[in-house]
Each structure stands twice: as C-alpha cells, then as structure tokens.
Design a protein that fits this description.
Elements lengths: L15 H26 L14 H8 L4 H56 L35
Length: 158
C-alpha cells in the first residue's frame, strides 16, 4: 500500500486590515444613507390636512373674518363624508353581528356532534385484557393397526 501524504492547506491569514476596511466601508454606507435620507425627505409634500400654519394662505385667512355662509359651506363639506362614514360603520357592525351569529350556530352544532361521541366513549366498557388460553398437552398418537383390549396378542394377517 502506498501512503499518500496530503499537504495541509494553510488558511490565508486575515490581518487586522480586513476588519478595518469592513468597518470603514460600513461607516461610508451609513453616512451616504443619512445624506440621501436628509436630501429626499424635504421633497415629500405633506398631506393637505397636516400642512404647516406658516404658509401664505393661512395668513390671508386669518385676516378675513368667517361668515355664516362660509361656515355652512364648510359644515356641508364635512357632513357628506361624515354621513357616508357613519353608514359604512353601521354596515360593518351589522356584518360583524351576522358573522358572530353564524359562529355561535356553528359552535353549537360542533358541540352537538361531540356530545354523542363523548357519551358513546363513556358508555363503552373498558376492554378486558385477554388472558392467553392454557396450553393442552398434545394427544398421544393413535396406533395405526388393531388394538388388543384383553391383553392377548393380535395376529396380523397379510
């Protein structure tokens, strides 16, 4: 048999430079992400309902008094969505009630199906352990020819 010698492969030595390069790379990625976040976060327009109060439109509105006609128009603008939201909420509550009723009916049916099963299992007697039947001695083999009952020899005829 020939012995084959395997040369142990040397692992490349990773110096402290690799760790330093990884840390510097992660720091550069983090700084770049922060600058991008900051640069593009200002370009997102705020929602109209959350607009800042420092805009020129609010300054003009503050100088102008609110009339009854403006107030009623604003009230009508709010009343439409409020009414549709109220109707939607009522429809959702009715649907939830209907589904809850269906769940309770199904739960009752499941309980009814499980009761006969549980009562049938309780009514069944526990299975009795089956004892093995006692072994009997095998019957002695019966002789194939004539048998003498009085003790006299039997003559075989051929």
């Amino acid at each position: 048999m020939a012995h084959t010698q395997y040369a142990e492969a040397e692992e490349p030595k990773r110096g402290p430079w690799l760790s330093i390069v990884v840390v510097i790379g992660l720091a550069i990625i983090g700084v770049a992400s922060a600058f991008l976040w900051r640069a593009y976060s200002d370009s997102v327009s705020p929602y109209s309902s959350f607009a800042s109060a420092k805009g020129p439109a609010t300054v003009d509105a503050a100088d102008k008094p609110v009339t009854l006609k403006d107030f009623q128009a604003f009230q009508q603008q709010i009343a439409g969505p409020l009414q549709s939201t109220t109707q939607l909420l009522a429809a959702q509550q009715a649907e939830i009630k209907r589904l809850a009723d269906q769940v309770s009916v199904l739960s009752a049916k499941v309980d009814l199906l499980q009761r006969p099963l549980a009562s049938a299992q309780a009514a069944m007697p526990a299975p009795q352990p089956v004892a093995p039947a006692p072994r009997r001695k095998p019957a002695p083999p019966k002789p194939a020819g004539p048998i003498s009952t009085g003790g006299a020899p039997i003559q075989l005829t051929r």
